[in-house]
Design brief:
Elements lengths: L2 E5 L6 H10 L4 E4 L2 H8 L9 H14 L5 E4 L3 H13 L3 E15 L5 E14 L2
Parallel strand pairs: 1-2, 1-3, 3-4
Antiparallel strand pairs: 4-5
């Protein structure tokens, strides 16, 4: 059974875990080491994409994952694109989580409006 490597900066929700086990037949969820999670969650938004940092994550995946493992990738747009493209070259399966957004507004006594957005996992979608 395939594993799912988690290339994002938060934890899976219970809904995401259940969906991955049921529909993707995931056996194990593997979070990045803290050092790499920190790199991925703090990509410098200025200047060019820090390719050396992205390479560290690629090296980690290549060393640990096997062909056919799922790689859940979400984050900085260009870093995601770079890593997804690489996953296709290495026969890993890059996916992302789709969500349904529920919006709720409440009028407050002081004339302000409180806005709340709730994100609910729907499914995993393969990058194409």
């Amino acid at each position: 059974m395939p594993n799912m490597y988690l290339i994002f900066s938060h934890n899976l929700t219970k809904d995401q875990e259940e969906d991955a086990k049921k529909n993707l037949k995931i056996d194990r969820f593997i979070y990045m080491p803290d050092e790499l999670k920190n790199i991925w969650g703090n990509i410098n938004p200025y200047g060019e994409l820090p390719i050396d940092d992205i390479q560290k994550i690629k090296d980690y995946i290549y060393k640990n994952a096997k062909k056919g493992d799922y790689i859940l990738i979400q984050g900085d747009f260009w870093a995601v694109y770079n890593l997804v493209k690489w996953c296709f070259e290495k026969d890993f399966i890059p996916v992302y989580s789709t969500t349904k957004r529920v919006h709720d507004e409440k009028d407050l006594k002081n004339g302000q409006v409180e806005s709340r957005k709730i994100f609910k996992h729907v499914n995993f979608r393969r990058y194409q």
